[in-house]
Amino acid sequence: MKKILIVDDNSETRNALFSELNGLDKFRVLSTDNARMAAKLIGTQQIDCLVTELNLPGINGFKLLSHIKKHSPDTQAIAITDIFSKQLVEELKAIGIFYYLNKPVIVESLLDMIFAQFDHPSGSLHGITLSSFLQMMQLEQKTCTLTLSTNKKQGVIYCIKGEIIGAQMDEIKGEIAFYKIMEWNNPTIVIKEGCKNTERQIDVPLMHLLMKSHQAIDEKGSDDPETIKNKNAQYPRQTCAGGAKTSNSHDLNYMKLESRLSKTPGISNYEIFSENNIILNEIPLSNRIFKASPVDYFSMGNTISSLVGGSLKYSIITRSDRSNYLIGKSNQYFIRATLKPGTKIADIIR
Hints:
Elements: E1 2-7, H1 11-22, E2 27-32, H2 35-44, E3 49-53, H3 61-71, E4 76-81, H4 86-94, E5 100-102, H5 107-119, E6 124-126, H6 130-140, E7 144-149, E8 154-160, E9 163-169, E10 172-173, H7 175-182, E11 188-193, H8 206-218, H9 225-234, H10 252-263, E12 267-273, H11 294-306, E13 314-318, E14 324-330, E15 333-339, H12 345-349
Parallel strand pairs: 1-2, 1-3, 3-4, 4-5
Antiparallel strand pairs: 6-11, 7-8, 7-11, 8-9, 9-10, 12-15, 13-14, 14-15
Protein backbone atom coordinates (compact mmCIF):
# COMPACT_ATOMS: atom_id res chain seq x y z
CA MET A 1 0.00 0.00 0.00
CA LYS A 2 1.44 3.35 -1.10
CA LYS A 3 1.49 6.25 1.34
CA ILE A 4 0.39 9.64 -0.04
CA LEU A 5 0.89 12.99 1.72
CA ILE A 6 -1.31 15.95 0.72
CA VAL A 7 -0.16 19.45 1.70
CA ASP A 8 -2.50 22.40 1.15
CA ASP A 9 -3.58 25.28 3.38
CA ASN A 10 -6.94 25.35 1.59
CA SER A 11 -9.05 22.98 3.69
CA GLU A 12 -11.64 22.45 0.95
CA THR A 13 -9.03 21.23 -1.56
CA ARG A 14 -7.10 19.25 1.06
CA ASN A 15 -10.18 17.48 2.40
CA ALA A 16 -11.59 16.75 -1.05
CA LEU A 17 -8.36 15.13 -2.26
CA PHE A 18 -7.97 13.23 1.01
CA SER A 19 -11.50 11.85 0.72
CA GLU A 20 -11.09 10.78 -2.93
CA LEU A 21 -7.67 9.11 -2.52
CA ASN A 22 -8.33 7.59 0.90
CA GLY A 23 -11.33 5.78 -0.57
CA LEU A 24 -9.01 3.68 -2.74
CA ASP A 25 -7.57 0.53 -1.20
CA LYS A 26 -4.22 1.12 -2.95
CA PHE A 27 -3.35 4.14 -0.79
CA ARG A 28 -2.94 5.25 2.79
CA VAL A 29 -3.40 9.04 2.81
CA LEU A 30 -2.04 11.65 5.22
CA SER A 31 -2.67 15.41 5.04
CA THR A 32 -1.45 18.64 6.59
CA ASP A 33 -1.87 22.36 5.98
CA ASN A 34 1.79 23.42 6.23
CA ALA A 35 5.24 22.55 4.91
CA ARG A 36 6.91 22.31 8.34
CA MET A 37 4.66 19.43 9.43
CA ALA A 38 5.02 17.82 5.98
CA ALA A 39 8.82 17.81 6.30
CA LYS A 40 8.52 16.31 9.79
CA LEU A 41 6.23 13.53 8.54
CA ILE A 42 8.55 12.69 5.64
CA GLY A 43 11.51 12.68 8.02
CA THR A 44 9.90 10.13 10.34
CA GLN A 45 8.20 7.72 7.92
CA GLN A 46 8.30 6.54 4.32
CA ILE A 47 6.12 8.74 2.10
CA ASP A 48 5.79 7.39 -1.44
CA CYS A 49 4.22 10.46 -3.05
CA LEU A 50 3.91 14.10 -1.99
CA VAL A 51 1.13 16.28 -3.46
CA THR A 52 1.73 19.89 -2.45
CA GLU A 53 0.39 23.37 -3.12
CA LEU A 54 3.20 25.76 -4.04
CA ASN A 55 1.78 28.90 -2.42
CA LEU A 56 1.87 27.79 1.21
CA PRO A 57 2.10 30.24 4.12
CA GLY A 58 5.45 30.36 5.90
CA ILE A 59 7.68 27.78 4.23
CA ASN A 60 6.40 27.62 0.65
CA GLY A 61 5.94 24.59 -1.56
CA PHE A 62 9.15 25.23 -3.51
CA LYS A 63 11.26 25.03 -0.37
CA LEU A 64 9.41 21.90 0.71
CA LEU A 65 10.01 20.22 -2.66
CA SER A 66 13.70 21.18 -2.62
CA HIS A 67 14.00 19.75 0.89
CA ILE A 68 12.31 16.50 -0.14
CA LYS A 69 14.49 16.05 -3.22
CA LYS A 70 17.60 16.42 -1.04
CA HIS A 71 16.56 14.41 2.02
CA SER A 72 14.05 11.89 0.61
CA PRO A 73 14.94 11.36 -3.08
CA ASP A 74 12.75 8.26 -3.40
CA THR A 75 9.60 10.26 -2.63
CA GLN A 76 7.69 11.11 -5.82
CA ALA A 77 6.23 14.62 -5.98
CA ILE A 78 3.39 16.45 -7.71
CA ALA A 79 2.97 20.23 -7.49
CA ILE A 80 -0.44 21.91 -7.59
CA THR A 81 -1.41 25.58 -7.81
CA ASP A 82 -3.85 27.90 -9.57
CA ILE A 83 -1.88 28.67 -12.75
CA PHE A 84 1.44 27.33 -14.07
CA SER A 85 3.46 29.74 -16.20
CA LYS A 86 6.38 28.69 -18.40
CA GLN A 87 8.80 30.23 -15.88
CA LEU A 88 7.18 28.33 -13.01
CA VAL A 89 7.47 25.05 -14.93
CA GLU A 90 11.15 25.72 -15.63
CA GLU A 91 11.78 26.42 -11.93
CA LEU A 92 10.11 23.14 -11.00
CA LYS A 93 12.12 21.21 -13.58
CA ALA A 94 15.31 22.77 -12.21
CA ILE A 95 14.70 21.08 -8.84
CA GLY A 96 13.63 17.80 -10.43
CA ILE A 97 9.81 18.15 -10.36
CA PHE A 98 8.18 17.13 -13.64
CA TYR A 99 4.57 16.54 -12.58
CA TYR A 100 2.15 19.40 -11.84
CA LEU A 101 -1.57 20.16 -12.04
CA ASN A 102 -3.67 23.30 -12.19
CA LYS A 103 -6.39 23.87 -9.62
CA PRO A 104 -9.16 22.91 -9.34
CA VAL A 105 -7.51 19.48 -9.37
CA ILE A 106 -9.29 16.82 -11.41
CA VAL A 107 -8.85 13.65 -9.39
CA GLU A 108 -8.59 11.46 -12.51
CA SER A 109 -5.61 13.48 -13.74
CA LEU A 110 -3.96 13.31 -10.31
CA LEU A 111 -4.37 9.53 -10.23
CA ASP A 112 -2.90 9.32 -13.74
CA MET A 113 0.23 11.07 -12.53
CA ILE A 114 0.51 9.06 -9.32
CA PHE A 115 0.21 5.73 -11.12
CA ALA A 116 2.55 6.89 -13.89
CA GLN A 117 5.30 7.57 -11.35
CA PHE A 118 4.77 4.34 -9.40
CA ASP A 119 4.24 1.94 -12.29
CA HIS A 120 6.50 3.24 -15.06
CA PRO A 121 9.41 5.32 -13.74
CA SER A 122 11.66 4.52 -16.71
CA GLY A 123 9.82 6.46 -19.42
CA SER A 124 6.98 4.11 -20.32
CA LEU A 125 3.50 5.23 -19.25
CA HIS A 126 0.23 3.35 -19.20
CA GLY A 127 -3.19 4.55 -18.08
CA ILE A 128 -2.71 8.32 -18.44
CA THR A 129 -5.10 9.92 -20.94
CA LEU A 130 -3.25 10.89 -24.11
CA SER A 131 -4.88 14.34 -24.29
CA SER A 132 -3.71 15.17 -20.74
CA PHE A 133 -0.22 13.92 -21.51
CA LEU A 134 0.07 15.99 -24.72
CA GLN A 135 -1.01 19.13 -22.84
CA MET A 136 1.71 18.46 -20.28
CA MET A 137 4.27 18.08 -23.09
CA GLN A 138 3.14 21.41 -24.55
CA LEU A 139 3.47 23.20 -21.23
CA GLU A 140 7.00 21.82 -20.79
CA GLN A 141 7.85 22.68 -24.43
CA LYS A 142 9.27 19.18 -24.68
CA THR A 143 11.00 17.76 -27.76
CA CYS A 144 10.37 14.03 -27.93
CA THR A 145 9.08 11.07 -29.91
CA LEU A 146 6.06 9.23 -28.51
CA THR A 147 5.45 5.61 -29.49
CA LEU A 148 1.90 4.59 -28.67
CA SER A 149 0.57 1.06 -28.68
CA THR A 150 -2.46 -1.05 -27.89
CA ASN A 151 -2.80 -4.81 -28.21
CA LYS A 152 -3.25 -4.60 -31.97
CA LYS A 153 -2.01 -1.17 -33.11
CA GLN A 154 1.05 1.05 -32.96
CA GLY A 155 1.64 4.67 -33.90
CA VAL A 156 4.10 7.52 -33.44
CA ILE A 157 3.61 11.21 -32.58
CA TYR A 158 6.46 13.69 -33.11
CA CYS A 159 6.77 16.68 -30.82
CA ILE A 160 9.21 19.64 -31.07
CA LYS A 161 9.23 22.27 -28.30
CA GLY A 162 5.74 21.26 -27.24
CA GLU A 163 4.24 21.41 -30.75
CA ILE A 164 2.88 18.35 -32.53
CA ILE A 165 4.63 18.40 -35.92
CA GLY A 166 3.72 14.94 -37.20
CA ALA A 167 2.13 11.56 -36.62
CA GLN A 168 2.23 8.17 -38.30
CA MET A 169 0.18 4.97 -38.09
CA ASP A 170 1.07 2.25 -40.60
CA GLU A 171 1.22 4.10 -43.95
CA ILE A 172 -0.96 6.99 -42.79
CA LYS A 173 0.74 10.27 -41.84
CA GLY A 174 -0.17 13.73 -40.58
CA GLU A 175 -3.45 14.89 -39.06
CA ILE A 176 -5.42 11.81 -40.14
CA ALA A 177 -2.92 9.55 -38.36
CA PHE A 178 -3.11 11.75 -35.24
CA TYR A 179 -6.92 11.54 -35.12
CA LYS A 180 -6.87 7.76 -35.55
CA ILE A 181 -4.34 7.39 -32.71
CA MET A 182 -6.50 9.60 -30.47
CA GLU A 183 -9.37 7.11 -30.88
CA TRP A 184 -7.41 4.41 -29.05
CA ASN A 185 -8.52 3.58 -25.54
CA ASN A 186 -5.73 4.00 -22.91
CA PRO A 187 -2.67 3.29 -25.08
CA THR A 188 0.76 2.59 -23.59
CA ILE A 189 3.01 5.62 -24.17
CA VAL A 190 6.77 5.20 -24.56
CA ILE A 191 8.73 8.46 -24.48
CA LYS A 192 12.04 8.92 -26.26
CA GLU A 193 13.97 12.16 -25.80
CA GLY A 194 14.61 14.08 -29.03
CA CYS A 195 12.87 14.07 -32.40
CA LYS A 196 14.79 12.94 -35.48
CA ASN A 197 11.83 13.51 -37.78
CA THR A 198 11.83 17.24 -38.62
CA GLU A 199 9.33 17.02 -41.49
CA ARG A 200 6.31 19.13 -40.54
CA GLN A 201 3.19 17.12 -41.34
CA ILE A 202 0.89 18.99 -38.93
CA ASP A 203 0.67 22.78 -38.75
CA VAL A 204 -2.24 23.51 -36.39
CA PRO A 205 -2.26 24.19 -32.60
CA LEU A 206 -2.58 21.32 -30.14
CA MET A 207 -5.93 22.52 -28.77
CA HIS A 208 -7.37 22.52 -32.30
CA LEU A 209 -6.14 18.94 -32.76
CA LEU A 210 -7.59 17.79 -29.43
CA MET A 211 -11.00 19.42 -29.91
CA LYS A 212 -11.29 18.12 -33.46
CA SER A 213 -10.26 14.61 -32.41
CA HIS A 214 -12.85 14.58 -29.61
CA GLN A 215 -15.49 15.79 -32.04
CA ALA A 216 -14.58 13.01 -34.49
CA ILE A 217 -14.85 10.42 -31.72
CA ASP A 218 -18.21 11.85 -30.62
CA GLU A 219 -19.65 11.72 -34.12
CA LYS A 220 -18.47 8.16 -34.72
CA GLY A 221 -21.74 7.07 -33.14
CA SER A 222 -22.82 4.59 -30.50
CA ASP A 223 -23.48 1.84 -33.08
CA ASP A 224 -19.76 1.38 -33.72
CA PRO A 225 -18.59 -1.73 -31.76
CA GLU A 226 -15.21 -0.22 -30.82
CA THR A 227 -16.85 2.99 -29.63
CA ILE A 228 -19.26 1.00 -27.44
CA LYS A 229 -16.37 -1.04 -26.06
CA ASN A 230 -14.41 2.11 -25.24
CA LYS A 231 -17.44 3.75 -23.64
CA ASN A 232 -17.92 0.78 -21.34
CA ALA A 233 -14.24 0.86 -20.40
CA GLN A 234 -14.07 4.63 -19.98
CA TYR A 235 -17.30 5.11 -18.05
CA PRO A 236 -17.80 2.17 -15.68
CA ARG A 237 -20.97 2.00 -13.62
CA GLN A 238 -20.56 2.93 -9.99
CA THR A 239 -21.03 -0.26 -7.99
CA CYS A 240 -20.80 -1.41 -4.41
CA ALA A 241 -19.84 -4.79 -2.96
CA GLY A 242 -21.47 -7.66 -4.84
CA GLY A 243 -21.91 -5.63 -8.03
CA ALA A 244 -25.11 -3.81 -7.06
CA LYS A 245 -25.42 -0.27 -8.35
CA THR A 246 -24.61 2.42 -5.81
CA SER A 247 -27.47 4.66 -4.77
CA ASN A 248 -26.87 8.40 -4.91
CA SER A 249 -29.90 9.14 -2.72
CA HIS A 250 -27.67 10.10 0.21
CA ASP A 251 -26.09 12.96 -1.77
CA LEU A 252 -28.25 16.09 -1.58
CA ASN A 253 -26.21 17.90 -4.26
CA TYR A 254 -26.76 15.03 -6.69
CA MET A 255 -30.49 14.88 -5.98
CA LYS A 256 -30.91 18.63 -6.52
CA LEU A 257 -28.88 18.52 -9.73
CA GLU A 258 -30.80 15.60 -11.23
CA SER A 259 -34.12 17.18 -10.29
CA ARG A 260 -33.14 20.46 -11.92
CA LEU A 261 -31.92 18.79 -15.12
CA SER A 262 -35.02 16.61 -15.45
CA LYS A 263 -37.31 19.66 -15.06
CA THR A 264 -35.46 22.00 -17.45
CA PRO A 265 -37.64 22.30 -20.61
CA GLY A 266 -34.71 22.98 -22.95
CA ILE A 267 -32.85 19.74 -22.10
CA SER A 268 -33.87 16.52 -23.85
CA ASN A 269 -31.17 14.22 -22.44
CA TYR A 270 -28.43 14.52 -19.84
CA GLU A 271 -25.60 12.58 -18.23
CA ILE A 272 -24.00 13.15 -14.82
CA PHE A 273 -20.39 12.15 -14.14
CA SER A 274 -18.23 12.00 -11.05
CA GLU A 275 -14.78 13.62 -11.10
CA ASN A 276 -13.17 10.26 -11.93
CA ASN A 277 -15.32 9.69 -15.04
CA ILE A 278 -17.93 7.39 -13.51
CA ILE A 279 -21.35 7.92 -15.07
CA LEU A 280 -23.88 8.15 -12.24
CA ASN A 281 -27.35 8.27 -13.79
CA GLU A 282 -29.01 5.41 -15.67
CA ILE A 283 -28.75 6.16 -19.39
CA PRO A 284 -29.11 3.33 -21.96
CA LEU A 285 -25.93 3.02 -24.04
CA SER A 286 -27.86 3.70 -27.25
CA ASN A 287 -28.94 7.06 -25.80
CA ARG A 288 -25.47 8.19 -24.70
CA ILE A 289 -24.72 11.67 -26.01
CA PHE A 290 -21.11 11.18 -27.11
CA LYS A 291 -17.92 9.52 -25.99
CA ALA A 292 -15.53 12.23 -24.74
CA SER A 293 -16.32 12.95 -21.10
CA PRO A 294 -17.09 16.40 -19.66
CA VAL A 295 -14.05 15.89 -17.41
CA ASP A 296 -11.83 15.85 -20.54
CA TYR A 297 -13.54 18.94 -21.98
CA PHE A 298 -13.11 20.85 -18.72
CA SER A 299 -9.42 19.89 -18.59
CA MET A 300 -8.87 21.29 -22.09
CA GLY A 301 -11.13 24.28 -21.50
CA ASN A 302 -9.36 25.28 -18.31
CA THR A 303 -6.01 25.08 -20.09
CA ILE A 304 -7.29 27.55 -22.70
CA SER A 305 -9.02 29.78 -20.11
CA SER A 306 -5.90 29.99 -17.94
CA LEU A 307 -4.07 31.69 -20.82
CA VAL A 308 -6.37 34.70 -20.39
CA GLY A 309 -6.50 34.51 -16.61
CA GLY A 310 -9.93 32.91 -16.28
CA SER A 311 -11.56 29.58 -15.55
CA LEU A 312 -14.13 27.56 -17.47
CA LYS A 313 -17.71 27.71 -16.12
CA TYR A 314 -19.53 25.98 -18.97
CA SER A 315 -19.13 25.22 -22.67
CA ILE A 316 -21.54 24.87 -25.59
CA ILE A 317 -20.55 22.28 -28.21
CA THR A 318 -22.08 22.55 -31.70
CA ARG A 319 -21.68 19.46 -33.87
CA SER A 320 -21.68 19.31 -37.67
CA ASP A 321 -25.42 18.51 -37.69
CA ARG A 322 -25.97 21.80 -35.79
CA SER A 323 -27.14 20.06 -32.64
CA ASN A 324 -26.04 21.78 -29.42
CA TYR A 325 -24.72 20.29 -26.20
CA LEU A 326 -24.00 21.83 -22.83
CA ILE A 327 -20.86 20.84 -20.89
CA GLY A 328 -20.98 22.10 -17.30
CA LYS A 329 -20.05 21.49 -13.68
CA SER A 330 -22.12 21.69 -10.50
CA ASN A 331 -20.33 21.17 -7.18
CA GLN A 332 -18.36 17.91 -7.60
CA TYR A 333 -20.40 16.71 -10.59
CA PHE A 334 -19.78 17.13 -14.34
CA ILE A 335 -22.72 17.39 -16.74
CA ARG A 336 -23.27 17.02 -20.45
CA ALA A 337 -26.73 17.61 -21.84
CA THR A 338 -28.49 17.61 -25.20
CA LEU A 339 -30.25 20.92 -25.85
CA LYS A 340 -33.55 20.94 -27.70
CA PRO A 341 -33.65 22.89 -31.01
CA GLY A 342 -34.32 26.58 -30.46
CA THR A 343 -33.32 26.50 -26.80
CA LYS A 344 -31.81 29.77 -25.58
CA ILE A 345 -28.55 29.26 -23.73
CA ALA A 346 -29.44 31.95 -21.20
CA ASP A 347 -32.49 29.94 -20.10
CA ILE A 348 -30.27 26.96 -19.28
CA ILE A 349 -27.36 28.74 -17.60
CA ARG A 350 -29.29 31.06 -15.29
